[in-house]
Design brief:
Elements (H helix, E strand, L loop, with lengths): L7 E5 L9 H5 L5 E4 L10 E4 L10 H5 L5 E5 H4 L1
Antiparallel strand pairs: 1-4, 2-3
Length: about 80
């Protein structure tokens, strides 16, 4: 049986992300982790998808972002 792939996955705009981690807290499948990406001189940990993430494309984390730093990108376009 093959796994059902999500129609979209979150993409992060680190230029506006505040590293508040609200998206990590609300993700129902724990797909996101905090990671020090090197974008910030204060060494904040920003969200990213886990390696081998179980994301189902629910858009919950994107809807909860207070600064709209998350957009859902179609997995069909990326293929």
């Amino acid at each position: 049986m093959s796994e059902k792939k999500p129609k979209s996955l979150p993409a992060f705009d680190y230029k506006i992300c505040m590293a508040c981690k609200d998206c990590i807290a609300v993700c129902p499948l724990s797909c996101l982790v905090a990671d020090k990406t090197g974008f910030d001189k204060y060494k904040k940990a920003y969200p990213r998808l886990r390696d081998h993430n179980p994301c189902n494309g629910s858009k919950i984390s994107a809807k909860d972002c207070p600064v709209d730093a998350i957009t859902m990108v179609s997995t069909e376009q990326a293929a």
